[in-house]
Amino acid sequence: MSSTSLTGIPVGRLTGLVAIAALVSLILLYFWTSPLTSCPPRLPQLKQHSDGHHEEMNNSIADETVEKPVLLLWVWPENYRFDLKDCKTLYNIDGCHLTDDRALYSSSDAVLVFHRAISWDLSTLPPSPRPPFQKWIWLHLESPTNTQKIPGIENLFNLTLSYREDADIPVRLRLTSNKTPNEDFTIPKKDKLVCWIVSNNAAHTGVGKRNTYYNELKKYITVHMFGSAYAGRLSDEDYYPTIASCKFYLSFENSIHKDYITEKFNGPLSAGTVPVVLGPPRKNYERFAPRDAFIHVDDFPDAKSLAEYLTQLDRDEDAYRRYFNWRRHFSARPHLILQNQEFVLAICTACDHVARHKEYQEAHDIYEWFFN
């Protein structure tokens, strides 16, 4: 005779019902907590175009775009414009979102301000107060001789962008080391001994010393002159070929200051011509190029002695070729854009710096630094 529970149901049957109920509970619990039902599937991120069309974006690419800092170009230097994609094309720099859209001011991580575009009443500066996270960058590539002190901006900037090596963001095209010695460099054919391209010879730019030296040098050697200051302006296409056709090029700076070594030096190096430099001391030049890559006017007691040495090198091909031995180990790159080319490099360099440096910084009394 089988026993019964308090409910009157036989114990064996009750045990079976409990087991079935437990099994059903386990099945329901499994489906309830399963990833297939616990949350909706992740939808692809969509990018909306101005025409209302949507396209699917890779999430990692979208995140990378959002993370790029925004660099606002407040004013185009000298009103010279270029394609903002050139930073990627020319220098492989793509770390920031570069824009000239002032509507993005409040969300820009950094603002690039061109010194010569700042008015005396400061009305052309970006509005204040600036967002607390935002950095202002002082862009100035002229020498102290050619710089006006605009009152009231000494302590406005976070970063300095200049030719100076001790700037927060130094700007310069540099020689690059060859991974293996280059034995293939050929000196371009030469049909002129000494050349000089001069576009601006205004007295107020501080050109007195270079003009004095040139006027003395031309008494003893022929100098072929080009450029709007002495002859017709060279086209962009003729600029480097003209330099390459000369054995020596007068790389005379318009003023003499520490690190003020411009494209006048890089141009002949890249074109396959020996620069004859007038500027800061030789040791300063040797920070940027091997000592046997150029001739410094300070190496000679006077212009006559320099002219005699250049004439001697013209007759001694082996001695002349030694000025190109550095080419085995280094390469020189020309500026790819001739008109106001330094601004393209400077702006792209700023973009690279902003992408790499997130830390806060202030530049105190930029005039005390720059003029000393």
Automatic annotation (TrEMBL):
Pathway annotation: Glycolipid biosynthesis; Protein modification; protein glycosylation
GO BP field: lipid metabolic process
Cellular location(s): Golgi apparatus, Golgi stack membrane; Golgi apparatus, trans-Golgi network membrane
Domain Fucosyltransferase N-terminal: 67-172
Membrane topology listed for this record: Single-pass type II membrane protein
Keywords tagged on the record: Disulfide bond, Glycoprotein, Glycosyltransferase, Golgi apparatus, Lipid metabolism, Membrane, Signal-anchor, Transferase, Transmembrane, Transmembrane helix
Primary location group: Golgi
Subunit relationships: Homodimer.
UniProt name for this protein: Fucosyltransferase
Organism annotation: Triplophysa rosa
